[in-house]
Structure formats: structure tokens, C-alpha cells
Amino acid sequence: MKAGLALLSASALAGCATTPKSENPQDAFFDALSAHCGKAYAGRLASDQEADAEMRGKAMVMHIRHCTGDRIEIPFHIEGLGPDGGWDRSRTWIISRTATGLRLKHDHRHADGAADDVTLYGGDTADSGNAARQTFPVDAESIAMFERTGRGVSTTNIWSVETSAAAFTYGLDREGRHFRVTFDYAKPVAPPPAPWGW
Q1: Are 28 and 131 in contact, with CB atoms under 8 Å apart?
Q2: What's the structural domain count of the chain?
Q3: What burial class does residue 127 get, using C-beta atoms within 10 Å of its C-beta: 0-12 exposed, 13-18 middle, 19+ buried?
């Protein structure tokens, strides 16, 4: 009888040892992005709204340029929209850890490096999301900025960032507005120059 109990206990312990530890999906998401640090990928416009007509057919590159344990900087470059028809290097997505989740901010600069009037807007996660996708509802600071600069239409923005084994996708959604750009992890490219002002 004692031998049987001992065997049962040993089996139970062995079962516990193989049970996977629960992982914070935001940590898994952050780590998955960080695994691409230093690499750049070709991308394209994946949505089809008239508001984005100027981006159609343009070459795009995202560069996971700099990573620390709590911050990832991802410049987004678009060919043909910069000064004199060159590359637009004005945008950098910044994903950082907070005490309660993750934060997405948009750093916008001019070609001379000066900050745009509308910059560092974004939001914090409102839930844990999952290891492949996080969403960022607009925060109060950004709402105030949008209202102050006549961009009231943006006060209901929800941004999303997705990372899978195949691709990185950035999105913006609000009523009547659905924007997506996607970057293929199977299409690495040479890292581009630094974004403006960095």
C-alpha cells in the first residue's frame, strides 16, 4: 500500500514538473519583438482607404533599431513622401513597458530633426492582449493634443501592433478609419539611415 502511494505521489510530482508555467502575454509579445532587434524588413500598405492613397505602391521599411529591457524603438520609413520625393523618415513607433502593461507612442520629426507639433501621442494597453497582438486605446494626453491641434477625429483612435512568426503589422482603427501596414519577416533588408532627429 505504501509503495503504491509513493508511486502515485511521484507520478503527481512528475506531472507538475512538466506543466508549463503561465507566461504573461505582454512579456511574450515584447520578447518576440525584441528578438528581431537590429533587423529591418520590407513592407507594404495592407489597407485600402482613400485617406492613404499617397502611400499606395510605395516602398516601406520598418527597422527594429534599438531595444532595452523596457523599450523598443521602431522607425517606419516610406519612399517617395519625403522632401524632394525622397524617403520620409519622420516616424518612430516606441513600445515601452509600464507598471501596468505596455505603451505605444509615436515620435514624429521634421527633416531637420525638430519635433512635429503632433508627436508622442498614443496610448496604453487596457487588457493583457496576447503574445501576438496588443492594442493601445488613445490616452488622455493624446486626446488633449488632438483637440488642441484640430484633430478631434482622432480622439477615439485604437492602435494595434501584431507580431507573428511571419510578419509585423501596425494598425489604426476608429469609426470609418482602418489603416494597416505589414512587414514580411521573410524579407529582411539592409538597415536604413537613422530616422530624422535621432
Answers
A1: yes
A2: 1
A3: exposed
